[in-house]
Amino acid sequence: MNKQWMQFAEQVKQLYGKDFVPLHEPTFDDKELEYVTDCVKTGWVSSVGAYVTKFEEELAKFVGVKRAVAVVNGTAALHIALKVAGVEADDEVLMPSLTFIATANAVSYCGAIPHFIDVHQETLGVDPFKLDIYLQEVAEIRNGELFNKQTNRRIKALVPMHTFGHAVHLDELVDLAEKYHLVLVEDAAESLGTYYKGKHTGSFGKVNAMSFNGNKIITTGGGGAILTDDEILADYAKHLTTTAKVPHKWEYVHDEIGYNYRMPNINAALGCAQLEKLEQFLIQKKALADKYEELVASLEGVKLFKQPVHSNSNYWLQTLVLDESLERDEVLGSLNEQGVMSRPIWQPMHELEIMKDCPTMDLSVTNRLKKRIVNISSTPIEVNNE
Ligand SMILES: *Cc1c(COP(=O)(O)O)cnc(C)c1O
Fold first, then answer.
1. Which of 117, 175, 187, 355 has an alpha carbon 20 to 30 Å from 101's alpha carbon atom?
2. Which atom number of ligand 1 is nearest to the Cα of residue 211?
3. Does residue 384 contact residue 287 with C-beta atoms inside 8 Å?
């Protein structure tokens, strides 16, 4: 086994004071216990309750949007965000191939077709410059809507994702969406606490989605939220995620096929406690990134991925970028074997059998990066950076 990786693994274990260091663990204390206990004691554990409203209000305030709608998970949030943004069956939706499966699944739930685009190596997210050139070639605007000239399908939306909490080139993407008449929907699942030029991610698109799964920067157990400045779309999202029930004192009237996607109160209670700690997590994660950068400096052929200039990142997952001299799977083997849990970046969507019929552009950056990226232990802790 390579000596430099043994030494690095030792340093990581020392940092955490553990023999086995998971990729990302939730951090709880008495606050979570207090709020969750309150739900149990009062009986308000399920689909309505004060914590849901409180969580929605505080989240919206933190992100800087008018409304947040809390739901069962990030995938459900994306599904409904796309639906209220107007994505319909047989539309195409532009999205990175380098993302978690949830982005593509949500598009598929709408009956729409993912159309995979390449990423920028500076952000690991959608490359607006390459996308512009590509769309000029393959798409055209007909009656105010964008169409794929090859498939004749409408291209309705553009879904950038802020990989590991690093903001994509949002100014350029906002302009691109306008130029090509696309609805912008941010998959901000990984980017709570990440700012683009001082403005929070998840506030740029028309409707956006976030996740509070157990491994995310804050967790509600499982959970997600739809974020928007548009009151009408927010009300519609709330309606759809609460079985599309028409308000009435006793009658059960539902005016369309809705979803039971609402976040239970007991999960929102956890979320309220976690939100109180978010600022502290952000400070700890930045310090951890600095510490890792220092440790990685002595490793041959490796760099820590640092935030792009326009991004104030949450460093949700700490990321190593390997150069061509290193075999990714050997690095993963060494670190995991020594108790430092590490994972590769996702297998790109265009390589999955279930996605093989989806249109794609040239994905050379994606194909190069997929072999070069390793995420390492990222749970926020106190570190000393002298
Ligand atoms: C976590 C995540 C989601 C949503 O996941 P859920 O587990 O459904 O909450 C969506 N997109 C990306 C990129 C994610 O990382």
1. 175
2. 9
3. no
